Amino acid sequence: MLGLRPIAGTGSAILFLLLALIGPGCRDQKTYETEKTYRQPLDAVQDPGGHVQATSERSVELLSLGPADRRASFQYLLRSRGKGCSVVLSTVLKAGDNGTDLWRVGCADGTWLVTISTETISVEDCANARTSFCADLLKNILWN
Question: Distance between CA 78 and CA 86 in Å, rounded?
Fold first, then answer.
């Protein structure tokens, strides 16, 4: 030993200091349900366990883009149609059949169901849609 003795009470003081520094980060973890928005954009294009295939040429092109470019494309589409979307946080391909694909586009200020086919593109506000395709199956992800 080097002849060092612990100073009385320093162990609890150090523990208190560590808890004070670490504690807030642990308490600040929230889920989508409590915060109502993701802390960062998601790159996933499918729901967990999903195996949806794009059936329209436009959706195939969107899937070939990188995540940031895909989000930018959907943001441009929504804004060009007069829909509010300050920033796109998620783009999830929900269904594809016979040349028509359904995308759930989550924005910081709303969620949209975008239907893409060879001839048309339509946009519906998920707040008014009566379909399970607007369900956000990614919402249970915890963020740091």
Answer: 10
Contact by Cβ (8 Å): 35, 142: no
Q: Nearest-CA neighbor of 53 among 101, 124, 16?
A: 101
Taking the C-alpha atoms of residue 93 and residue 21, their distance in angstroms, rounded to an integer, is 41
For residue 83, the tally of other CB atoms under 10 A from its CB is 17
Instruction: List the chain domain ranges.
Output: 31-143
Q: How far is residue 77's CA from residue 43's CA, in Å, rounded to a whole number?
A: 18
Beta strands (DSSP E) in 5-85 are 30-31
DSSP 84-138: --S-EEEEEEEEEETTEEEEEEEETTEEEEEEEESS-EEEEETTT--SGGG--TT
10-residue mean pLDDT profile of the chain (144 residues): values are 46 43 39 47 67 92 93 95 92 92 92 93 90 69 42
* Tokens 């040349």, residue located: 99
Q: Is the pTM of this model over 0.70?
A: no
Burial code (b: 16+ CB inside 10 Å, e: under 16) for 15-36 equals eeeeeeeeeeeeeeeeebeeee
Residue 140 to residue 144: CA distance in whole angstroms = 13
